[in-house]
Each structure stands twice: as structure tokens, then as C-alpha cells.
Design a protein that fits this description.
223 residues; alpha/beta; Rossmann fold; 5-stranded parallel sheet; 9 helices; 5 strands; binds thymidine-5'-diphosphate
């Protein structure tokens, strides 16, 4: 990657705690690197992306190809207007989901070839890939239980309702991608307590970025 910033994505199934872990890592990276930190997400990291998010997750049924293109359109706009400018400023950008979510979710639906889905997003983003991708891996059944216990989560979105078999295929797709590109991915067991998972995320990300090993006590940055 040519930009001076640091681009990190979080991936995993629904309800594995990505947004919490992404936020905690972002806070910590800001402290240890002194850089600006931009926390964002897909779909919906921009105003246009929020419109696309509502349409794709809460609207009428969307054809599989149209759905893949909507995620890619969200990603194209997100990268062009938010992610790349931040990286050019030298920021740390931590995104809750990126291209691998499209490959895992749209590809795991089996109607679309994973290679096609990936190519569309690479075109959309002019090939921008994260320096590090953190896979928060958890059994989808455990993740569903965790989600149900989160207060005020509201009605499940369309993909969340599709079921256990789909969730299992998505998990396998993420694990396969991580295994085939080990230099980019770190895989962290997401079943533990928030602070324990975050401590492991920090150790693994620090190692990939060549930062010093984090001091124990990951909970400090939660405030
Ligand atoms: P997200 O907001 O991360 O929800 P959760 O916190 O429940 O994981 O993602 C919303 C949904 O969007 C999620 O079910 C996965 C789906 N998604 C795709 O299918 N393709 C994509 O490219 C992206 C970014 C998300």
C-alpha cells in the first residue's frame, strides 16, 4: 500500500463483537502510535452508504447480483471519500467489515462465484486492501446467544434471519480466506470475555505492524 496511513479491517460473523473490538483497538493504536484514528464501518460508513445499508439490509428482496453491487457501491464511495483520504493524511483507519465480508457473505450464498465478488470490490476500491485483517472467529450459535443478550438490539436484519447453515458457511469462508492469506490475517477466538479478546487482538496486530508488545491489562483503554 502506498498511503502513509495504516488500514485495518475486522471481519467475522454477525454478533461476534466486531464493533466493540474495533473501537478498543482503535483507541489503543491512537495512544501507541500518536496517529489520528478513524473508526468506520461497512455497509454505511458514509451518508450515501447509510442509504445503501438501509436498502440492502432492511428493504425489499434484492437480487443477489444487485446486492453484491450495492455492497461494492457502498465500498467504492467509502474508500474514495473517507478511507483513502484518511490514509493519505497518515491516519489509522479501522473498519468494521470490508471486502472479505462481501466474498464470505455474497459468495457463501452460492449463487455468485467468490472470485467474481472479489473482483468487483477490487475494481470498486482500486485494489485497496488492509495491511491487517482481524478475523473474530466464533461458533455462530454462541454468537447468536450473545446477540440476543445485548439489550436493545432490535429485530434481526434480513441476513441475520437466514439461519444457521448460512452462518456456518460464512464462518468457513472467512477461515478459508484467512488460511490462504496468512500474512494479512490474524484469527482470534472471539468466545472469551471482551478484555481477553482485545488483549489477544492487540498482541497479534502489534506483531504484524512491528509495534512493541502491548502491556498486559487491555481493559484500561475501555474508559
Ligand atoms: P454489520 O453491521 O457488521 O452487522 P453485525 O454487527 O450483525 O455483524 O453487518 C450487517 C450485515 O451486512 C451482516 O449480516 C453482513 C452483511 N454484509 C454483507 O453481506 N456483505 C458485505 O460486503 C458487508 C460489508 C456486510
Amino acid at each position: 500500500m502506498d498511503e502513509p496511513g495504516i488500514f485495518i479491517s475486522f471481519e467475522g460473523g454477525d454478533g461476534v463483537g466486531k464493533s466493540t473490538q474495533a473501537r478498543l483497538l482503535g483507541v489503543w493504536l491512537g495512544e501507541v502510535t500518536g496517529r489520528e484514528v478513524v473508526l468506520t464501518r461497512e455497509p454505511g460508513g458514509t451518508a450515501l452508504g447509510q442509504v445503501l445499508r438501509d436498502a440492502v439490509l432492511h428493504g425489499d428482496h434484492v437480487d443477489a447480483r444487485a446486492e453484491a453491487l450495492m455492497y461494492a457501491a457502498d465500498r467504492a464511495h467509502h474508500v474514495a471519500t473517507l478511507v483513502r483520504p484518511a490514509l493519505e493524511r497518515g491516519a489509522v483507519v479501522v473498519t468494521d467489515r470490508y471486502l472479505d465480508s462481501s466474498v464470505a457473505y455474497q459468495g457463501a450464498g452460492r449463487e455468485l462465484a467468490a472470485d467474481d465478488v472479489e473482483r468487483i470490490s477490487l475494481w470498486a476500491t482500486r485494489g485497496l486492501m488492509p495491511a491487517v485483517t482481524v478475523l473474530l472467529d466464533a461458533d455462530p450459535v454462541l454468537a447468536a446467544e450473545r446477540r440476543a443478550s445485548v439489550e436493545g438490539k432490535g429485530a434481526p436484519d434480513r441476513l441475520e434471519s437466514v439461519g444457521a447453515e448460512f452462518a456456518a458457511r460464512v464462518r468457513e469462508a472467512f477461515l478459508d480466506r484467512a488460511a490462504s492469506e496468512p500474512h494479512r490475517w490474524v484469527v482470534v477466538d472471539a468466545a472469551g470475555a471482551v478484555d481477553d479478546v482485545q488483549a489477544q487482538v492487540r498482541v497479534d496486530v502489534a506483531a504484524r505492524l512491528g509495534l512493541g508488545a502491548p502491556t498486559p491489562g487491555a481493559a484500561e483503554a475501555r474508559a
